Amino acid sequence: MRKKTTLWLVAAATTAALAAGTGYGVAAPPPDRPAAAEDDRAYVYRVHDGAHAAESALAGFDLIEDRDGDDLFVLGDAGTAKDLKAAGLKATVEQKLTPAPWEPPKRSGQAPRLTAEVAEETYYGGYRTVNAQYAHLDQVAADHSSLATVFDVGDSWRKATGRSGGYDLKAICLTKKQSGDCQLNPNSSKPRLFVQAQVHARELSTGEMAYRWIDYLTDGYGSDATATEILDTREVWVVPIGNPDGVDMVQQGFMGGPSGQQWHRKNANHTHSNGCSEGSYGGEGIDLNRNNGSHWGGAGTSSNPCSKVYKGPSADSEVETQALHALYRDLFPDTRPTGDHAAADPDTQGMFITIHSYSNMVLFPWGFDSSVETGNDTAMRAMAQDMANLAGGWEYGQPGEILYNASGSHDDWAYDDLGVPSFTWEVGPSGGSCGGFHPSYSCQNTFWNQVKPMLVYAAEHAENPYGGGDTPPPSDCSVTNGTNLSIPDNGSAVTSSIEVSGCGGTASSASTVEVHVEHTWRGDLVVDLIAPDGSTYPLKSANGNDSSDDIHETYTVDLSGEARDGTWKLRLQDTAWYDTGYLDTWTLSL
To answer: What is the edge-to-edge ordering of all strands in the sheet holding 42-47?
Structure first.
């Protein structure tokens, strides 16, 4: 885990004028606890050793998407310090955040006509309002009729319940249209990439990334080779605003409305949270990224309606959640059996990306518990590493590995229900002038240069993300060495060879190495595959904490750059004293 070298945020890039409001936490105060009257700023608290704290102690606090070693961070008000102490957590103030400048308010609710003038609406230095995002979709479809189709896929809570200020929930399909394209049918002839943004309303950068992705593809078609290739061979679906009511609350908070709304995270459904005052410490609504039915109600959620991570009264209760689920099912077939460890069909197509902020991370399922791996962990972990590298060296892993466990998320649901590989991207650094939820709009160019190559990668890999599209190796290219080989205790490496001949061609990107080793304390062992040209492919590293016996494992390896024929070697080394064993058998399938 990296060490923090800068503050979590800087005042110039954040906002926090707050109203008196509600606290929460395990030892939650009454819903009417006011913020300290003399201090209406937002506070960032460092929770020391929070990664090892009981999940029940952290439940309900607004954990920020950031981690420093074993320390976690909580957003709150001046009174949150007492709540943290009451929950048994040791916390210190990391930073106090200053309010954003006032701006003239703009309309609230969906504009009756999404004109070119509406498309220019911005707030806080350049961020597009919900109406501007929707007007942009219509403009793109009008200007690029052969490439773009706009869909109304549902309603926000306000609109669905007949309240004023509500919105449609909109998506756009981008592709070089041919017969049968852009249909709400999971049996698409083209692989699909799905991208959604601003489900958490306060995460301003995410909607901007979706906006720029749409423009890059449509404006670049015919002149940019990559954009042209993507739209010729893929369908790209984008939901730029997944929580329009919530985003409206945030933009009104920046434009003269209740200032506490600048920190709004949830939707607008106050049925269960009426009276929860808005602020950095809580507010009305339901967290849409904790409301999904995959492991709903587990780690990282709260039953307190005022909490920022309130899970809702039941799984999938929210109209926005239901509309998004219906869209996912219209776009992707179900390729995965039930069970946390079940793998999706290796021939699964598609890619699911949900963009959040911040901390420069690539996350993948399972989010509810990092000790549980999906059946497609190897493939998704490899793709996450590639994405993180393309972004310039982001962190990657399951949420609980590098951040904290969180249940009921969209990416868990999409993978759980449909088997499509699913990722959450946390855009923006944890510190510096571009850190936090509300960075200066000028930071978006930096973010786009990181996110664009990841989006291109996701589109390119939508055709065969799990590697199942490779031609299976012929049976005569599966070779076994069954000769036992002793492994010296804390000694030099030993090798076992397999000679492959008569296969020809190159190996598969989904080649497998089946290894059977009898050995006490297998954590001492390092196992590598060595190709005929001398290239080394690590299969297993030493792990002093792995005290189990024996290795009975099949490793999938991308050997697509290697010729099949030649002498292949399995190299094994015992790196510590007192435990011994031998290689029983290994099989190479190319």
So the answer is: 62-68, 71-76, 42-47, 91-97
Cα-based angle 21, 22, 28 (whole degrees, multiple of 5): 155
Greatest CA separation for the chain? 81
**Distance between CA atoms of residues 485 and 483, nearest Å:** 6
- Contacts of residue 25, defined as CB under 8 A and 6 or more positions apart, other chains included, come to 59, 60, 61, 80, 83, 84, 86, 87
Measured N-to-C along each axis, helices 225-233 and 204-220 cross at an angle, to the nearest 10 degrees, of: 90
Q: Are 394 and 362 within 8 A, CB to CB? A: yes
d(CA 563, CA 503): 9
Instruction: Indicate the length of the chain as a whole number.
Output: 590
Look at the pTM and tell me if it is higher than 0.90: no
Residue 332 in tokens = 């992707």
Q: Which residue type, as a one-letter code, is found at position 455?
A: L
Question: What is the per-residue pLDDT across 244-297, written as a single tens digit (0 to 9) for each?
Answer: 999 999 998 887 666 678 889 999 999 998 888 887 778 899 999 999 999 999
Helix intervals (H) in 40-184: 55-58, 80-86, 130-143, 157-160
DSSP three-state, residue 219? helix
β-strands 235-239, 122-123: how paired? unpaired
User: Closest by alpha carbon to 387, among 437, 322, 319, 458?
Assistant: 458
